[in-house]
Amino acid sequence: xxxxxxxxxxxxxxxxxxxxxxxxxxxxxxxxxxxxxxxxxxxxxxxxxxxxxxxxxxxxxxxxxxxxxxxxxxxxxxxxxxxxxxxxxxxxxxxxxxxxxxxxxxxxxxxxxxxxxxxxxxxxxxxxxxxxxxxxxxxxxxxxxxxxxxxxxxxxxxxxxxxxxxxxxxxxxxxxxxxxxxxxxxxxxxxxxxxxxxxxxxxxxxxxxxxx
Length: 212
Known about the structure:
Elements: H1 10-15, H2 28-46, E1 55-59, E2 64-68, E3 74-79, E4 82-83, E5 112-120, E6 126-131, E7 136-140, H3 150-155, E8 163-165, E9 169-171, H4 173-184, E10 189-194
């Protein structure tokens, strides 16, 4: 959906300078998000669910992405922009609709385990497909609509203003190039999107008692 827009800026690249290799932010929300992401990462690796490949975990409640190596070791973390609407499912058939017809309450980032693959949008830009049928991808943030203030939203300490997209996961350009592209942009992979309306075990089979 948002993956069809083009453009980035030096400000977007500069933003990712604030995101180091290791997670250094000490805010309570960020630390809590990191604990949840690392807990899921350990469970995924223990169950061999990541197929011995690098992967990412997206925490929607805290609007952050965490990138892990194949052993579950954290490589980097960054704020992201997510779907405007709260919810864990895409509307059936939404990927076939014109963006102008998608209502605000339908603009969700779906939760669950997604088999990703590298792709290109209609502008020829490289992206990572999360759910091709629902037209949900992970891509560099684009600031071509000034009124949306996407770069400012990423830099803001508030999580509430990180909800702006049609469902796609918008990542600072420099972080995308440094972490997302090497891990997921050249091969098929896995992204785990934590739900915000239900327990994680409802979306990830390897967390259920029978799988442990």
